[in-house]
Amino acid sequence: MLHFWLSCIVKAILDTVSFMGTNVTGILYAIAIAIVPLVSKIKKRISVKGGWRNMKGRDWLSVFREAGNLSLKAGGIVFFCYLFAAPYGLLTEEKVRAKEASALLATDRAGVVRDRDGLRTKLEETNRLCAVTDGAKQTLEKQNRDQQLSINGCLSQAMKLLTPAPEIFTPVAFEVNQSGTAITKSRWLVFINRTISTTAMTVTCDQDIENMTAKIVGDNSTVGGTARMSNRSWDMRLTSPVWGPTSPVLTDIASRGQGALVCSFNKR
Question: Left if phi > 0, otherwise alpha if psi is -120 to 50, otherwise beta: which for 104?
């Protein structure tokens, strides 16, 4: 409360000075309250003293003092007028400032709301784009997984096709000639499931082998031959032609003994 009234007094003083120093009406009023009382007092004092010549120094001093008092009173009237008007002026100024602050706040609030709406729109757009991107990502990941499964399946099938089948060869005795002598002649076909460029194997029988010959079926220009390793084991090595599924090895074995001849063919 004290601060308010001090503000009113200061405002009244400043308004009074401003009125009497800058406003035309105020300047004229200031001149009037300074000159009119002085002239009035001089006339009155001259009338009392009976002329100019009778005026003494103390008379002039009294005139100026009385004129000054009147001027102060006139200025005080202006001051008190402004002092009484100061609360309303301060209230009006505060209302204007409050109105300006409210307008500025409303402008700022509108800007904030506008920015918030813009950010919300951008956020929604970003969420939509993220959802689209996430969906595309999941679709691509599924496609990649499916493609990888397909590739893995194709690789497995290719590996199966590229992996050679296990080598299998089968000897078959299809002709045995027992002439009643000590020598038995038998013929063997040795089949294999893939092509071999060099035929090399050891033939072992359960009877003594007197002689053994070998060639590739269907070709009379077989290169290679057989050699004794022991009484019951012979070595076979054919370098041409190739040994394959459609060109088995034909082997003639002459053994010493009676009964069925049992032989094993061991590939090297």
Answer: alpha
DSSP single-letter state for residue 34: H
Q: Which residues on adjacent β-strands are paired with residue 202?
A: 235, 266
CATH class of 169-267: mainly beta
CB 66 within 8 A of CB 72: no
> Strand pairing partners for 175?
187
What's the farthest any 2 CA atoms get from each other in the chain?
A: 203
Q: What angle do CA 96, 99, 104 make, to 5 degrees?
A: 125
* Spans of all domains in the chain: 1-163, 169-267
Q: For 118, how many CA atoms within 13 A lie in the half-sphere containing its CB?
A: 6
- Classify residue 55 by burial, with Cβ atoms within 10 Å: 0-12, 13-18, 19+: middle
Averages of pLDDT over each 10 residues, the chain, 268 residues: 54 51 52 61 62 59 63 61 56 74 83 86 87 84 85 80 78 79 87 87 93 88 91 92 90 85 89
Give the C-alpha distances (Å, rounded to integers) separating 232 from 7, 86, 102, 202, 237: 138, 143, 122, 10, 17
Enter the pTM of the model.
Answer: 0.43
User: Which of 225, 234, 172, 227 has its CA nearest to residue 203?
Assistant: 234
Q: Is 29 helix (H, G, I), strand (E, B) or coil?
A: helix
Distance of CA 26 to the CA centre of its chain: 74
